[in-house]
Amino acid sequence: MIDSLFGAVQSGLIYALMALGVYITFRILDFPDLTADGSFTTGGAIGTVMIAHGYSPWLSIIAAFAGGALAGACTGLLHTKGKINGLLSGILMMIALYSINMRILGSPNVSILDQDTLFTFMSPWILIPVMVLFIKLAMDAFLHTDLGLALRATGDNAKMIRSFGANTDTTTILGIALSNGLVALSGALISQQTGFADITSGIGIIVIGLASVIIGEAILGARTVFWATLSVIVGSVVYRIVVALALRVEFLEVSDIKIITAAIVILALVIPSARRATRQKRLAQRRSRELSVAPSKPSVGGTADA
Amino acid sequence: MLRLQHVSKLFNPGTADEKIALVGANLDMKAGDFVTVIGSNGAGKSTLMNLISGVYRPDTGDIHIDGQPVNTVSEHRRSRWVGRVFQDPMAGTAPRMTIEENLAMASLRGQHRGLMFAVNRKKRQLFQSELEHLGIGLEHRMNAKVGLLSGGERQALSLLMATFTNPQILLLDEHTAALDPSRAELITRLTERIVREKKLTTLMVTHNMEQAIRLGNRLIMMDKGKIILDVKENRKQDLSVAGLLGEFERISGHTLADDRMVLG
Fold first, then answer.
1. Do B25 and B50 meet the contact criterion of CB atoms below 8 Å apart?
2. Are the C-beta atoms of residues A90 and A77 closer than 8 Å to each other?
3. What is the pLDDT of residues B158-169, one digit of tens each?
4. What sign does the dihedral A288-A294-A299-A304 (CA atoms) show?
5. pLDDT tens by residue, B90-148
6. Domain ranges, ordered by start, for chain A
7. Fold for domain A2-280?
8. Cβ A149–B118 below 8 Å, yes or no?
9. Chain A within 8 Å of B180 (Cβ-Cβ)?
10. How many CA atoms lie less than 13 Å away from A158 in the CB half-sphere?
11. How many other CB atoms are found less than 10 A from the CB of residue A35?
12. Which chain A positions have a beta carbon within 8 Å of B100's beta carbon?
């Protein structure tokens, strides 16, 4: 039990990099990017194959990041320059990446269990938290630079930032590239942790990312960039703990995780808007009761709500 | 400063929906000119603004800003010279970002955006003094998200952001129309002061006849894609709302039809 919880925290931290990537597209750019399902596997594939060929594990994760970023840049180009709908751009790239990932891997499953990985030399309990913290802080810093502000404004009010001379096509492409770079980095680290890469490992990853972002926001909120990125990491860890606990329920199968994840995302998306609607309605009902009870003497000039 | 020569723009040419937005428009603005624009529905006022800012390219004719031809210059490049405030108070600011972040983006109009921190102490001081100058207390809320501000406050901030770097041309597209009268008056006063202090070359579309007469040193009237009346400084002081309406009828042959027109 304790073991599985520790494991959940550890993989939650690695998946947090993926969730940070999803946060960039989903929350900052307001662009639901399905490329992640493909680029997660791409990262795992590049990282694993490079290690299998004897390259340094560090080099392999850098290459994985670059590979993911390249895939993301393609999605961005399809969307901005090709004027293809955002969801479709992501789906097209995801499908294309399946073939590319298969080419990289050579077979549906590649094992590196007998090879040295990052975790051979360093305890994952030191390496992973340090790395996640470093990337989180670097991302916070980036999002406060002039370029980072332009990126955030692209998702917030594209017309406005264009009127100040930023090229929103460029910032969109940059954002999606960064996002998928992080997703691929996460994929590479997961395959080093588990010792293998699998062609199906990315399936549904976007939904897990969304679940992490949403859970984190529900727990910690997203007042500032610092809290938003922190909440994504917390959300990812909490998600893994929930999954680990769910798996201990006798009645549930491993394959049920996906429907549970989908349910979390659906609930998290539906509840806030439903709650807002009921609150609005109650407020309106109370106000109209007040107004109909109040004596209907003509008000003497000006302030209606005095 | 700004010159339009025989500029025309058609939408959906050759179809049943063909719309002549602007035909053979000529306009010559000197540096420091403050021109107010009035006209009926669909007269081409917004098209004129969008042609100058580069949202649309003219079908015929030439546009020069500061002596340079800008016909083929894209919107985001043209923004180096052109500041805009839109009618919608939500349009000119980024709601999920703070006041100082919004100002930081505005302060880099048309410049390269790199990896320097957007807000530093020096910039913060500059933003603070500019906000103080607006006189509506925004200097105490620099870390507040802009989405929390009222429409009037947002429009005041939009105005400050649009004029922050002293653009060659300032375009105001009915920027007080969506506000209640007292806030509209505040924004009008701010506009007048900022344009005067910074000596900005300004083009302002308005539905408020009284405002159009009171502000600026020149007034143009548009109808059906044409500039039909151009009142220069010396004659502008003598204008009245009634006189202007009469003039419009005399030239265009119909009454000024604008469902949002405020006569003042």
1. no
2. no
3. 999 999 999 999
4. negative
5. 999 999 999 999 999 999 998 999 999 999 999 999 999 999 999 999 999 999 999 99
6. 2-280
7. ABC transporter involved in vitamin B12 uptake, BtuC (1.10.3470)
8. yes
9. no
10. 14
11. 34
12. none
